[in-house]
From TrEMBL:
Pfam families: Aminotran_3. NCBIfam families: PRK07046.1. It comes from Asanoa ishikariensis. GO terms for molecular function: pyridoxal phosphate binding; transaminase activity. Belongs to the class-III pyridoxal-phosphate-dependent aminotransferase family. Keywords: Pyridoxal phosphate. The keyword Metal-binding does not apply. This is Glutamate-1-semialdehyde 2,1-aminomutase. The lineage of its organism: Bacteria, Bacillati, Actinomycetota, Actinomycetes, Micromonosporales.
Length: 450
């Protein structure tokens, strides 16, 4: 049992300790008055200690802040650095392109792009790829194409999903069971319940009810939810989604941006899924911005035959720097040399050690928590059994407890993903790094429960 007054006191102690040991970070923060929210991007204020970690350097699975503290980094840029920070093969390829006058912003195709397309097709099973700068844009452009093709107005997503700042995705199943705008949704261009439909993850009956309206162009989903804790599919759920989408004439988009952790071809390959479109971003660039969407052959053919769609100018799909030479050089190096099948084997076995160790500590403390693994990614939740939908998962959050664990770990050199208790393994993450986490995590729990 966790005593809440004890939790409050420990969290205050950890926050004060962080501020006291990070004077240069505090100075950097004080000097940032011309930044909105004092940070380069407002999400960076999601800091358990109240003060962001100001990174000075990052290599492999390690990060050093401006105050000289070292961290084992299990956040890895919320997956953008799943290949490890500054992977040598990517740094070499990118440096070579920069130094050799390869051109950074030509808006012309490069040979690297075709290689990346071939590799993504081999891994994810869909054969026609196009590039963006972010996973958000991959999702945006994919759903525009699918609306155009079907003539249907709506997109269906899972409640408490995250697919980037995609207007159509900011919808939840509300407390009364009806669709509602996601709490906090900033400046929606229109009522999201008129552009979208929503079903709870793992709820095939709910999905069928919504698809039966016949107005859903596409279901956009992560094969497993990863942004409200990890929520894994119940047996038969993903096959049911595929069957229902086919029956109701809706396309299926697998957003593999995070579920890529399941293996070299993401959950799509690991679980034998058959989406019409795969979207991805972040990790495939090894730290350099890139996103991508891949289309099935029939879908690409149908789109290619639509002369009325402006795909080569201002029709709403495309961007000046999308597919730029630097992004594609980085993606090619990442896929060919860093996030290989062999690397995934190692990352997954380190993640299994992470999950097993956390389970042991939690069981030893008699806490009713659960641990979920998705290949190279692990998450602990304050509920057992693990929630099976986004709504249930949202209800199981405990922000103060989360902040306490994050702050305690940070003060002892371990960085978790700030948005939840998520730990990602890179090819450079070692069993010793995992042991470091476990030692500190066990101490955090002991102080809380003693
Ligand atoms: N899809 C998923 C599943 C994500 O987790 C995210 C980011 N967390 C995105 C898309 C958007 O990525 P980005 O912010 O790089 O556009």
């Amino acid at each position: 049992m966790i005593a809440r007054d004890r939790l409050d006191a420990l969290l205050a102690r950890e926050r004060a300790a962080f501020v006291a040991t990070h004077p240069r970070s505090a100075e950097a923060n004080a000097a940032a008055g011309n930044l909105f929210g004092r940070v380069p991007m407002t999400w960076m204020n999601k800091a358990a200690t109240g003060l962001p970690v100001y990174a000075a350097r990052a290599r492999g699975a390690r990060l050093t802040d401006v105050d000289g503290h070292d961290y084992v980094d299990f956040c890895l840029g919320d997956t953008a650095a799943m290949a490890g920070h500054s992977p040598p093969a990517v740094v070499a390829a990118v440096t070579d392109r920069l130094a050799s006058g390869g051109g950074l912003a030509t808006m012309l195709p490069t040979e690297d792009a075709a290689r990346v397309g071939t590799e993504l097709a081999r891994r994810f099973g869909v054969p026609r790829w196009s590039f963006t700068l972010t996973a958000t844009d991959a999702n945006r452009w994919a759903i525009r194409l699918l609306r155009a093709l079907t003539g249907r107005p709506r997109i269906l997503v899972n409640s408490y999903c995250y697919h980037g700042s995609v207007d159509e995705s900011l919808i939840v199943v509300g407390p009364d069971g009806n669709a509602a705008s996601r709490p906090g949704n900033v400046g929606a261009p229109s009522d999201v319940t008129t552009t979208s439909r929503v079903a709870e993850y793992n709820d095939l009956a709910g999905l069928e009810r919504e698809l039966a309206h016949g107005d859903v162009a596409a279901v956009l989903m992560e094969p497993a939810l990863t942004n409200i804790g990890i929520v894994l599919p119940s047996p038969g759920y993903l096959a049911g989604v595929r069957e229902l989408t086919r029956r109701h004439g809706s396309y299926l988009v697998n957003d593999e941006t995070h579920t890529f952790s399941a293996g070299p071809g993401g959950a799509t390959a690991a679980w034998g899924l058959e989406p019409d479109v795969v979207t991805i971003g972040k990790a495939i660039g090894g730290g350099i911005p890139v996103g991508a969407y891949g289309l099935s052959e029939p879908l690409a053919d149908l789109l290619g035959a639509r002369a009325d769609l402006d795909l080569v100018d201002m029709g709403g799909v495309g961007g000046t720097l999308a597919g730029n030479p630097l992004s594609l050089t980085a993606a090619r190096a990442t896929l060919e040399h860093v996030l290989t099948a062999t690397a995934f084997e190692g990352m997954t076995s380190v993640a299994t050690a992470f999950a097993d160790g956390v389970r042991d500590i939690v069981a030893g403390a008699g806490l009713p928590w659960s641990v979920t693994q998705l290949g190279a990614r692990v998450e602990y939740r304050f509920r057992s059994p693990a929630p099976t939908s986004g709504g249930a998962s949202a209800a199981a959050t405990d922000p103060l407890l989360e902040d306490y664990l994050h702050a305690y770990l940070l003060n002892r050199g371990v960085l978790l993903t700030p948005f939840h208790n998520m730990a990602l393994m890179s090819p450079d993450t070692t069993l010793a790094d995992v042991a470091t986490h476990h030692e500190v995590f066990a101490a955090a729990i002991a102080e809380l429960t003693s």
